[in-house]
Amino acid sequence: MKTVEIYTTPICPYCLAAKRLLDRKGVAYQETDVSRDPALREAMMERAGGRRSVPQIFIGGAHVGGSDDIHLLDREGRLDPMLAD
């Protein structure tokens, strides 16, 4: 499986929904909490094309968007192939 990175904050329901989807699929991910570190949020925004909302999700280094985006990819059957090596 490709590396999955997810930028989150602790009280974000969309972050929890995205992590639950990845957990259901058995996908390990690297989580970065941006709630208390402006430099981490700035780095996330740079990588995500200026998007400041969380979560921001990357698969294999490619930005795939937020919670709605990853759920849409899953519904369309495109998430599993993206996660595969």
UniProtKB/TrEMBL annotation:
PROSITE patterns per UniProt: GLUTAREDOXIN_1, GLUTAREDOXIN_2
Pfam hit, one: Glutaredoxin
Presence of the UniProt keyword Transport in the record: yes
This protein's record includes keyword Membrane: no
Residues of the Glutaredoxin domain: 4-64
UniProt keyword terms in alphabetical order: Cytoplasm, Disulfide bond, Electron transport, Redox-active center, Transport
Function, in words: Has a glutathione-disulfide oxidoreductase activity in the presence of NADPH and glutathione reductase. Reduces low molecular weight disulfides and proteins.
Family of this protein: Belongs to the glutaredoxin family.
Full protein name: Glutaredoxin
